[in-house]
Amino acid sequence: MSSAALNPERPNYLNQEYGIRSWLLTVDHKRIALLYLLSITFFFFIGGFFALLIRLELLTPAGDLVQADTYNKLFTMHGMVMIFFFLIPSIPAVLGNFLVPLMIGAKDLAFPKINLLSWYLYIIGGVMMLHCILTGGVDTGWTFYTPFSTAFSNTRVIEAGLAIFIAGFSSILTGFNFVVTIHRMRAPGMTWTRLPLFIWAHYATSIIQLLGTPVLAATLVLVVLERGLHLGIFDPALGGDPLLFQHLFWFYSHPAVYIMILPSMGVVTEVIACFSRKRIFGYNFIAMSSIAIAVLGFLVWAHHMFVAGISLYSALVFSMLSYLVAVPSAIKVFNWTATMYKGSITFSTPMLYSFGFIGLFTMGGLTGLFLAALGIDVHVTDTYFVVAHFHYIMVGGAVMGYMAGIHFWWPKISGRMYPEAWGRLAALIVFLGFNLTFFPQFVLGYMGMPRRYWQYPPEFQVLNVLSTAGSTILAVGYLLPMIYFLWSMRYGKIADANPWHAAGLEWMTPSPPPTFNFDETPVVTWEAYDYANIPAPEEVPVER
Amino acid sequence: MFENFSMWPARASTTAGNVDALFIFLVALASFMSLAIFIMITVFAVRYRRRPGLEAEQIEGSHALEITWSVVPMFIFLFIFGWGAFIYFQERTPPQGAATVYVVAKQWMWKLQHEEGQREINELHVPVGRDVKMIMTSQDVIHSFYVPAFRIKQDVLPGRYTTAWFHATRPGTYHLFCAEYCGTQHSGMIGQVVVMEPAQYQAWLSGGGATGSMAQNGAAIFQQLGCSTCHRFDTQGRGPNLTGVFGSKVQLEDGRTVVADEEYVRESILSPASKVVSGFKPIMPVFQGIVSEDQLNALVAYVKSLSKPPAGAAATPGMKPQAEMQP
Amino acid sequence: MSDSDSMAGGSLVAEHEHGPELRHHFATVEQQREASTLGMWLFLATEIMFFGGLFCTYLIYRYWYYDEFAAGSRSINIWMGAINTGVLICSSLTVALSVRAAQTGKRKTLIVLLILTLLFGVAFLGIKGVEWYQKFEEHHVPGLNFSAADLIRDYPQLHIDPHHVQLYFSLYFAMTGLHALHMVIGIGVFLFLLYESWKGRYTPAYHTPIEIGGLYWHFVDIVWIYLFPLLYLIDRKPL
Predict the structure, then answer these.
(1) A residues 144-203 lying closer than 8 A (beta carbon) to C
(2) Domains and CATH numbers, chain C
(3) Are B104 and B202 in a shared domain?
(4) ipTM value of the model?
(5) What pTM did the predictor assign?
(6) Using a CB-CB distance cutoff of 8 angstroms, which residues of chain B are in contact with residue C67?
(7) Residue pLDDT, tens place only, C30-58
(8) Which of B4, B305, C51, C162 has the largest count of CB atoms under 10 Å?
(9) What is the DSSP pairing of strand B191-196 with strand B172-178?
(10) CA closest to B282 among chain C residues
């Protein structure tokens, strides 16, 4: 363990080289992680801005803020930006890129130049998406259902499809880099069962990225060709089958949701172990459940199509499989809870976000049970019930996990502590704002309010007003970290190598790390989460 | 804002009660599980909060616990699956003898036609206590027929029929929504289902506007388009005799056997070469682009009327008997 | 990133005992080679999924619209397809031999074999270009000038719906087009390998790029081996 060098001018990956070229042509995984951090934050606020406009429109039953076509573009672009340009990259491209080599004791990922290429592909896709937004937008829904998207929409479908196609390659390259790195670049002594569960989670995520994203790519190619050349692959008027599109689309897009949630489960595992000062309960089960989710996740796609016109018997099969995939997630929640038993618990900001994650992911996951029940799904599919369900998982789950991770590893990334009191306050605001925004939507959905509605019958207004109120609170909760993280880069308390006294190789190198991560390649002789041998900090590190 | 505010949808069909029962069970289960987790986390967080002298105990795991909390949830989930599947099976199996309504969805309206011939736009009048089956298709993009009060929803696709059914139990007026995003006025593609007492429904039916039942219209189209030239009602025709065909099993020339349902009749008109009846040549002309959806529905209704009604089916109060075409 | 900073002793391979091809985030040449090879196999797995989506679409529609697909298949030039198959198989042979040449340090042989591979690749593309042009002249290019009239006339025994035939040709062009794009990329890769070989960069100790370039080429060949029977040989028996 290197001694805590509190001199911020010690050479590290941030001050090693200066200048825009050194950043734009870097192959250092840590710098690339920061490039991603900036870009996905930018897209998060774009997607969030669209969300605010949607909620503002829905304050009143009439369509009186924007026109119907505009509204349709807003929800489409909110979905596309948030899913493809924020959620899918978020944890893997920021925290994964930064931490995977550090956690396994490597100097970098297996293919540093391909890592940089993946960022550039993301940027190219992102610029295309921005151009699409600024020159008229797209209104097909993020799901691109045919024949509306290929033969009826009058918006920039091809450009949006190509932007996502390109961003998809970014995702594939990230996944591919992680799998090779984890297989081949572990430090001596770092066996598979000594790996942090964050690594297992990213391994499972990467398998999905590798195998699922290409199918979306093929599907988007066919959609673009169909729209551009008036072919009839998915258009019944020209001999095609619209349901085939849905099968191909959901074959990727269902596993995609596991790309979005598995990494944050990895984060939460690390945080809970650290702030309970305990080895994680059921290591093998959590590791295997990540793999199980990745595999089973490929088998359930048609649960998005129960009322689409598929046969009754295939619906039965997909419903049963959807229940099976819920089991590994349940296992994780129980294991996290059991980890807290007889621990020594600190309520740091990352831990608060993790509590929020467990609670909200549990609720979101339980509502998945409702949707997997065929008889219920007929009533609630395509309504706000589904919208609430996936926002509980994606925002209440994945984004909370992302925030937990950013806070937890911020000292390592920046060499500074964020202000703890503000961190806890923001976590609380996010939790309250989130529930007020999305819980009413479960009720709205069961009442029958369909999704993607610009105007609605007046009896739905009260719940919509509650939801909009919540969204403004949620927005404040997200703005606060922007402000205090920036503040901390200049004024935050300087962090030593391991301010949380956490287990893991990343904490055994200075904060921020040197460019090649470790002065000496570590040799691992201890088990993961070796908290028995790591003394707790004297006091809870709190920045007032 | 507060008029008509409620937190539970009206329950107006036989299905609604079944769906609500499962839903309430799931709400109870989910609340219980959520509370259990919340309470455990809170209790652990407080009881095991960091204080001087309190060391964490390193616990590896417990196979017994892991098995328990994997297997028990799995059985609960399978139970829920079974219950949900049972309801779904009922939802997707229209009862025999249901009255049929033909629905054509288009951007951005619902066109409905009763068998007796009444046409409606964005409204559907039905009598309480009667099985009603909808045969639906779209003229353009995918829509979805959704009546929350009945708890039914079915996507409506271009190029084929999809089916839904309900049995209304309470008179009243209920929302009809389009539930699959279909473009600019998706949220404007709404209407209502008006459930009436049988006597009132009878009165509404005779209120008129109908120009003959759908089957009668279909018979007329059958003549106009020249179908009767080949589909004669004797054995001399170049095409099969259509009496009694609907609902029966048909042997095709490639060896397959199919059931002659609405989709089969529709496909036979639009793309006859797809399924050629055994013993006949594939010489039927293609009518794709020549018949409209409304005409197709009328022809389907007509072919249906050529099959004997199921033995013992009583005439329903308020519904006119099916048209009979004399062969 | 020079290696003169921050590397103090430890378990690192001594700085100058390896060739310049060892990247400094790897500890040994073996590790780098294994990583590169695993990387190429994973990349090929993603390519299988990519083509797989198209193959899946193709198989479904072929099952539904067999007659139209059979008619379309009869209309494409089986001889050009067969010759192209032979061309690609020969090119895979030259690729395999070039890996062997690199392994045994025969630089001149390696260069000759790479050039032959490139010639085969270009020949494949040339023949494909001629084939496509023929389709263009026959009005079988969807989106440009498509007409199924000649097929309906030529095959009265088959039930031909023009939309479904267009579907066959859409998939034909999508699949062979994507394959041809991969061939073009492969040719680019092999031009690079040729250049590096000419400069003497590959030795028995280090020739990983030839091996993984070869893997890629073989994969593109195998995709064609599936495309050929699926597209060209649907139903060639006399009607």
Answers:
(1) 172, 176, 179-181, 183-185, 188
(2) 40-232 (1.20.120.80)
(3) yes
(4) 0.92
(5) 0.91
(6) 273
(7) 999 999 999 999 999 999 999 999 999 99
(8) C51
(9) antiparallel
(10) C159
